[in-house]
Amino acid sequence: MDFNGSDTIPGPRAEDQLPHTAQAAAKIVIVGGFGVGKTTMVGSVSEITPLTTEETMTQAGIGVDDNFGSASKTATTVAMDFGRISITEQLVLYLFGTPGQQRFWFLWNGLFEGALGAVVLVDTRRLEVSFDVMGRLEERGVPFVVAVNSFPDAPRYALDELRTALDLTPDIPIMECDARRRASSRDVLMTLMRFLHSLAMTGSRA
User: Mean pLDDT of residues grouped by 10 in the chain (206 residues)?
Assistant: First the structure.
């Protein structure tokens, strides 16, 4: 392209432009272990074409990355996923999906900066990973809700059992979801926003 000529740099596509009615925006992070569905959730709910940083998994990751329950997974997020959804005509959420492999968790600190809240995606086949994830959020003072992603081959438990197993306080919302479905992912985000509103009204943090 000749920048001295008549050619111009194309602007954003119409569908990617911020709605003119938007008056407020909030940063939300979607976190969880490897293969729990973070990229899928961002992609299913985003109203713009999501930005992903997926790379093909190679032999070098064998013995380093825990892909239990995700043996068919061929790509992984190495930096972040990014999407956007308008909750109302005035409120826009910017969604940041974190990398799941523990060797990339050092990137989380930057992604947590300025985050209003978080969704913790959980896979019942690997509940133990969730403790580290929630611990990091608690250290940073980021309120969160827990969404149990429904994998076909994953064991099913009552939400009360999972609340106990994850040692969640009674006030933290926990729900089932299907990260592949836009409506389900949106319901999770709406639950998070209601939770954040309740915290703001009581003047507390998770």
Answer: 54 62 88 92 93 56 50 52 90 89 64 93 94 92 97 94 96 97 97 96 70
pTM of the predicted protein model: 0.79
Range 169-182 burial, b when 16+ CB lie within 10 A, else e: eeebbbebbbbeeb
Residue 173 is encoded by which pair of tokens?
A: 């919302």
Torsion angles phi and psi, residue 25, rounded to 5? -135, 150
d(CA 73, CA 69): 9
User: Measured between alpha carbons, how far is 148 from 123 in angstroms, rounded to an integer?
Assistant: 6
The C-alpha atoms of residue 146 and residue 100 are separated, in whole angstroms, by 16
Phi, psi for 93 (deg, rounded to 5): -105, 130
**Strand blocks (E) in 32-162:** 54-56, 75-77, 81-86, 91-97, 117-122, 144-149
Distance between first and last Cα of the chain: 51
In angstroms and rounded to an integer, the radius of gyration of the C-alpha atoms of the chain is: 18
Residue found by looking up tokens 């403790």 in the block: 131
